[in-house]
Amino acid sequence: IKEHGSIRKAAHALGIPRSTLQYRLKREDGLEQETEGVIPEGYRAKGTSTLYSADGSVKLQWVKTQIDPERMAAIMDAMREEFAATITPCVPVLYEPRDTEADLLTTYILTDYHAGMFAWHEESGADWDIKIAEEGLIRYFTRAASLSPNSETAILANIGDMLHYDGMLPVTPASKHVLDADTRFQKLVRVVIRALRHAVSILLDKHKHVHIIMSQGNHDEASSAWLRECFAEFYADEQRVTVDTRPDPYYCYEHGLTSLFFHHGHRKRIGSIDAVFASKFRQVFGRTKYSYGHMGHLHHSEVKETSLMVLEQHRTLAAPDAYASSGGWLSGRSACAITYSKDYGELSRVTIPWEMLKI
């Protein structure tokens, strides 16, 4: 209305009738007055239901609310800042591995790990709980690091859904589907941080520089954010560790003539994501000759080579839950560590099947 000078002109610009805009204005003003001081922080009113008595006075009223995305985002930003401010950075490791090859980079792929998920072998074919998840993660990094070349640089690439659920309630963030959960959320947070810190220590014993990517997934949109900030703050004084704190769910790393791109796969699928990577990281893509995109989300492997890059969708190490098993969405369980050259792109890879971890 301020922009166009009148309700009629504003309604025309919005493509709605003048009466509709007038109704919405009155409704919003009325709701703000009726619900002031009642709605919890991070929510907004979307309507009320009122029960009137015989004399016309209000007897009961129900306030219907919905999440206010902008306010909720601001609350999450404040929480992340406060959370990071309480962390004492680690003491830098004086020991540094020798005889590493400066030309090489090894990317340790971990996707859809779903720590905090519960699976029962009689129902889904394999067991999975928080204890199995922690032991499996540490054994994967130990085994993959021992079998990989002595690359100077390592990327810990968590490509999303590290946590099975994203808060006190075991539901998916967007659809609110009820999930099979193993444990309490605070215990899950504690275990995931502890296991990933152990993984970073394993990689620091092997490589001179470790770069950490904590991709956003559809199961852990908020948790991926605090993981990024937590690890960035904890390793703030460790010059051998860098953390990508990019809030946009697309990530990139440049290694000589090789460029690596990462996205969980919940926003874009393998058939169209190459153009998104090239567009979002235009300068990096232009400087490099060999480009590779890594994704997860669907739990099974697929490789697609386009005119822009090689795209790979990765398997998970996690067991299927009851939902996946009953729906027939099954795949092998493995994770890989891929080694790249600055000058020639991918050189080798180590694939670790779940059976190799013997849990």
Written overview of the protein:
α5 (130-147) packs parallel to α6. This protein is 34% helix and 25% strand. It has a six-stranded mixed beta sheet. It has a five-stranded mixed beta sheet with strand order 7-8-9-11-10, covered by helices on one side. It has helices at residues 7-14, 18-35, 69-85, 121-124, 130-147, 185-206, 221-234, 273-280, 282-287, 322-327, and strands spanning 43-52, 58-67, 101-110, 151-158, 209-214, 241-244, 251-255, 258-262, 290-295, 302-305, 310-313, 334-341, 345-353. β10 and β11 form a beta hairpin. The longest helix is centred in the middle third of the chain and has 22 residues, at 185-206. It is α/β, with parallel strands linked by helices. The protein has ten helices and 13 strands. The radius of gyration is 25 Å and the shape is globular.
| Elements, N to C (H/E) | HHEEHEHHEHEHEEEHHEEEHEE
Structural class: alpha/beta
Q: Largest sheet at a glance?
A: 6 strands, mixed
Percent helix: 25-40%
Strand arrangement in the largest pleated sheet: 6-5-4-3-12-13
Distance between the termini: 64 Å
Number of strand segments? 13
What value does the average pLDDT take? Answer: 90
* Total helical elements: 10
Radius of gyration over all CA atoms, rounded? 25 Å
Uncertain residue ranges = none
Q: How much of the residues is beta strand, in percent?
A: 15-25%
Principal-axes shape call: globular
